[in-house]
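Same chain as my last thread, 202 residues:
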Amino acid sequence: MRDAPLPEDTDRVTPAAAEEAVRTLLRWAGEDPAREGLLDTPKRVVKAYRDWFSGYGQDPRDYLARTFEEVAGYDELIVLRDIEFESHCEHHMAPIIGKAHVGYLPDGKVVGISKLARVVETYARRFQVQEKMTAQIADCINDVLQPRGVGVVVEGAHECMTTRGVHKRGVSMITSKMLGTFREDARTRMEFLQFIDVGPGR
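reply #2:
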């Protein structure tokens, strides 16, 4: 079962219907969908949406299913930082561009580092609110790997704020989710923040 399935009626929307919806928006904006430069735009947009929102068809937990226990007793902090992501705001459908930093304290098993990036990518390729995405990543890692602790920090620039509304550029939003030892032990939390270069003294 998919981690966050699409609404039941989504699969009934044909590519042709989606393309017609794009033509409607073009007309609403004041354009002529029949002019030469826009003839193929609906197909391109539908194809782009399949890429941008491919996360709906994936279960991020599957990426964490294969673990490794032969780590010579390693039980210290594991951190993957600067995981670039591209997402879209669920309020305005505008891009969110940023980086995620993920850390965990293993409890006898570890996972391939590329799989952590896959988890971030899967959640990012859905309509999102940054706070929710941060919690989803942390909860997924915590539930599947069951480590002693998980820390996730996400930094994002929201185009819904830079290209509309207040039009403020150069602004980034930082969210975090700490579980287990990361939440209970200030030293572990600080070590994680120092590894990703976020927090006091940055």
